[in-house]
Write a structure and sequence with these properties.
By secondary structure, this protein is mainly α. The protein is built from four helices and no strands.
Length: about 200
């Protein structure tokens, strides 16, 4: 490469030496054939040297650069297309995830409503059961109170009858007579009085 540069410098300097000798006699408007000849010879020689040694590597470098740029552009286009495809896929997955989340929320709401209604039904059933149990207990207490009152009424009736008759009858027989009498009395009368 040094040889090429040295030779090209020498060839470029030759017209300058030739023009110094002719500079004294030349006019700018008049053609100088010697100068034109040497300029043409130097141009052709320089063209041949550059085409053999410089133009091919420069053209190859430019073509390699163009090919690299084309490849880079193609790669960029391909990457952009892949990125666009990935973006579409991600958006589709996000939409799918949103739909699934909405479905989960709807299912959770439905399950919550179902549990709520089930709990309300259970609470109402328990409440009804408690009311029924309270009614049964109240009726049982009322029946016990009525029975207790009957026993006391029998005792009072027997005591009163003993004093009226003034003789002591068999208390067991008297009790049976009074209980039979009280049992013959309809049970609805004490219910009306208790209400």
């Amino acid at each position: 490469m040094r040889k090429i540069l040295t030779l090209s410098m020498f060839l470029l300097a030759a017209p300058a030496y030739a023009s110094e000798a002719a500079a004294e006699k030349t006019n700018l408007m008049s053609p100088n054939t010697g100068l034109m000849f040497w300029t043409l010879v130097i141009f052709v020689a320089l063209w041949i040297i550059l085409s053999r040694y410089a133009f091919k590597p420069i053209t190859a470098a430019v073509e390699a650069r163009e090919a690299a740029l084309r490849d880079a552009i193609e790669t960029a286009k391909r990457d952009r297309d892949e990125a666009a495809l990935l973006l579409l896929q991600h958006r589709a997955k996000i939409e799918e995830a949103r739909g699934e989340a909405q479905r989960f929320i709807a299912e959770a709401r439905a399950a919550g409503e179902k549990v709520k209604s089930h709990m309300l039904e259970e609470t109402k059933a328990q409440q009804q059961e408690m009311l029924d149990r309270a009614r049964r207990e109240i009726e049982a207490e009322r029946d016990r109170a009525i029975a207790q009152l009957r026993r006391e009424a029998v005792e009072l009736a027997i005591s009163g009858a003993e004093k009226v008759i003034e003789r002591n009858l068999d208390s067991e027989a008297n009790r049976k007579i009074v209980e039979t009498f009280l049992a013959s009395i309809p049970a609805s009368k004490p219910d009306r009085a208790s209400r």
